[in-house]
Amino acid sequence: MAKGTKEYTVPALEKSIQILNSLANEELSIGDLHSRLNLPKTTTFVILNTLEQFDIICKTPSGKYRLAHGVLRWGNSYLNSMDMVQIARPHLERLVHETPYTSHLAVLINNKPIYCDKVEGNGFVRFATSIGQSQPLFQSSVGKALVSDMSNEEIKMILPEDRSQLSDKNERSLDKFLEDVEFVREYGFSIEDEEFEEGVRCIGAPIRNFTGKVIASMSITALSKDLPAVKFMKIGEQVKATALLISQDLGYIFN
């Protein structure tokens, strides 16, 4: 709950919000609301009647109440007003604060990860990445995170068929890529260990919207010396936690 000054609250509105929050979880009768929220039955009836008139709630055939289509106006308005880059940036800045890491935000466009934001760390090295730049799907931590909710069959369909131009060191089989994606599904973050560029490592994580769908991913990029393998799990958990905070700000409810 957001912080506020108690003396300025409106009692009737506060009770209405309590009722709506309860109905967001399940259908309830007047008696249920009266006992659970410790509200007078007359007050509960008046509030329910008012909310029903505005299609915020409706009565079921069983005599209980549930949320109605009127709440969609608020939900859709909120979702349409959200700017993912604006929401994600403070989280990315906090993640890289006082580190040599650089953070990126990416979305999948035409089956390619595209950077849509970048936050530099405090290291001396500046990575030659830019907003609008694409990354190889199968050689990037953001790419692995972006496809982590897809089935293996869907992934096979969107992977590029010709990877012959890659060096022997960077050549990755489909099976190995699917193993990397399975790691994301199990641990919640992805690792790119000098696959795209020698001496550079990345750790990414998926970002979800209010439906739970992966709609973006974020990552940190670092020189290998600044991100040794022994730190993969620790930093991975931090990246995953940051991605979850962004997801929650986008409406995702984590169970």
Automatic annotation (TrEMBL):
Keyword annotations of the record: DNA-binding, Transcription, Transcription regulation
Residue ranges of every copy of the HTH iclR-type domain listed in the record: 10-69
A Pfam family that the UniProt record links to this protein: HTH_IclR
InterPro entries per record: GAF-like_dom_sf, HTH_MetabolicPath_Reg, Tscrpt_reg_IclR_C, Tscrpt_reg_IclR_N, WH-like_DNA-bd_sf, WH_DNA-bd_sf
PROSITE patterns: HTH_ICLR, ICLR_ED
Domain IclR-ED, first and last residues per copy: 70-252
PANTHER family (UniProt xref): HELIX-TURN-HELIX TRANSCRIPTIONAL REGULATOR, ICLR FAMILY, HTH-TYPE TRANSCRIPTIONAL REPRESSOR ALLR
Name of the protein in its database record: IclR family transcriptional regulator
Lineage: Bacteria, Bacillati, Bacillota, Bacilli, Bacillales
